Amino acid sequence: MEYQEVKQDLFTAPSDYYLAHCISADFAMGKGIAVQFNQHFDMRNKLQAAFPGYLATWQAQGRSFDCLLQGRVFNLITKERYYHKPTYQSLQGALEIMRDLCRQRQIQHLAMPLIGCGLDKLQWSQVSAIVQQVFAADEGQILVCIK
Known about the structure:
alpha/beta; six-stranded mixed β-sheet; 5 helices
């Protein structure tokens, strides 16, 4: 996978790019870039409609990460509640699910912000290394959009 960090608004990525961001299993989406995803795509309502009872299922299964594709948005679920913090392990697990979904659907163009590094407080140098390692064997392009 070709990896690039660019100064660009994520929401101006070409329309053949799938977008990715981190959320919590409660679909709160009340702060950070998730608010913009909600504004652009009505993501919270779409997720609640497509995955009713998701949080209860997450809890019952003892999950610590997941990835839900809704339209052209990958919702990387890295924590149970919006006020929790993810771990590098939960982020990597969510990215691996996203990679597998990309392979299944032959998706080769991804764009994302500095995932896990705003409100979630992970260090970009480590997150970037994880992203590149997870997608190392894949074709296509990842754009990391930095405002």
